[in-house]
C-alpha cells in the first residue's frame, strides 16, 4: 500500500495530496488520501504517474499505519452530517396536520401533498448533487460545506412560517437546493483518513447519519403545537398563529450551529486550496470518471446495495404491522417501536465496534461479500417468521426474531463497505467529490423508485394472497442472492486490503 497524504503542520489538519497520492480507502478526495503500502498510491498507478512520484513525499507503510485518526476533524464532520437527516425528517411528525390546517386541504388530498412536500427535498437535492460535487472539487471543500449548511439552516427555519401550501413547497425546495453537504462531508472524511483509519471514520459517520434520523422526528414531534403542549407557551400569540414555527426554528438553529462549528474547527482538505500544497490537477469530467477502470462496477455494486436496503426499509414496518393471516406478524405499534429500536441499536454496535476491526483484519471486499451472504439469509427469515406464527410455533418464533434483529443488523456494514469502495476506486484525488456526487445521485434516484415499488409489490401479494402474502419477500430474497454475484465484480483496487508493517518489510527484504 502506498501512503497517505501528509498531515499539515498544524493540528490534525491533513495536507493536500498530489496527483500521485494514494487513492485507496478513505482519503480519496482531493486532500489527504488513503494509500497502499506497495510503494505506489493505491498500487494502481500507471507508468507515467509512477515517474512523477517524489520519494521524499511517499509515506512509508510504518508511517501510514501509525498515523492517528484526526478525531477532532472527524467528529466535526460527523456533527455536520446530522444536518440533512435532521432537516429532512424533522417535519414528518406534523406535516400531515400542517398540510390539512395551514394548507387548507381536504383530508383526501393530504396524503398526496404530504408525499409531494416530503419528496421535493430529495428530488431537488438529487438534481444538484453532481453540481455540488464538482463545485467542491474546484472551489474547495470547506466553503461549499459551510454554504450548504447555512442554506439548509435558513430554509428549515423559514418552513414553519409558511402560511399556505405553496410556501411549504417553496421552502422545502429551497432546503433541497442547499442540501449538498453529504457530498462534501464524504470527501473530507476520506481526505482526513489513511487506509488504516478510514473504516473507523466512516463507521462514525454512518452512526451519526442514523442518529440524525432519530433526532429529526424528536424535534418535530416534541415541539410542534407548542402553545398546546407546553403551558409556558399557552398564551404566546406567535406560537398560536404559527404552531410549527418552534420545531422549524430549533431545526434551523441546530443546522446553523454545525456551520459555525465547521467554520471554526474544520480545515480545508482539497489540494490547491491548502496553503503550501501546490496546484491541484484539474477535475475529471463525468464521462472520463465513469470510463475510468473499475468505476462502473463499483457504482453498480453501490446501487444494488442501496436498492436492496431501501426495499427492505420500506417493506419491513408494513410487514411488522400486517396481520399474521395476511402474511405479516401482526405487531402492535408499541412492539413495532421496540423492534425498530433494537434493530437500530444492534446496527450501531455492528458499525461502531465490529466493522472497523473486521475491515482492518480482513478487507473491505471480504466484509462486503460476507454481508451479501447475510442479506440473503436475513431476508429469507422474514417470511419464515410469518409461517412460524401461522403454525403457532411461538417458542421458535421469538429466538428466530431475536437472531433476525441482532444478527441480521450486521448487514448494515455493507453500507460502509460500498462507501469505502467508492473512495478506493476514485481515479483522481480532485474527482472524489464528483464521484461521491454521482453515487449519491444514483442513491436519490433509487430512493424515488424502490420504496414505492417494494410496498406496491407487498400490497399486491397480500391483497391477492400470492405465496401466502410473501411475494415482496421472494423478490427481495432473489435480489439479495443476485447481490452475491454483483459483489464478485468488485475490482482489486477497491478491495481495501491492508498490508501490515511486518508484511511490507518482508516484501522489501525479498
Short synopsis of the structure:
This protein is mainly alpha-helical and 510 residues long.
Report on the architecture of this protein.
With 510 residues, this protein is mainly alpha-helical. The protein folds into 2 domains: 74-282, MFS general substrate transporter like domains (Growth Hormone, Chain: A), CATH 1.20.1250.20; 287-501, Growth Hormone, Chain: A (Up-down Bundle), CATH 1.20.1250. It has 22 helices and no strands. It has helices spanning 47-51, 61-66, 71-81, 83-89, 95-101, 107-139, 141-159, 165-178, 181-191, 198-223, 226-229, 237-241, 245-265, 286-291, 295-321, 333-361, 364-390, 394-406, 413-425, 432-463, 471-486, 501-509. The longest helix is centred in the N-terminal third of the chain and has 33 residues, at 107-139. It starts with 46 loop residues before the first helix and ends with a helix.
CATH architecture of the largest domain: Up-down Bundle
Output the helix-strand order: HHHHHHHHHHHHHHHHHHHHHH
Report the principal-axis shape.
globular
Strand content is: under 5%
Largest sheet: none
Helix/strand structural class: mainly alpha
* CATH overall fold name of the largest domain: Growth Hormone, Chain: A
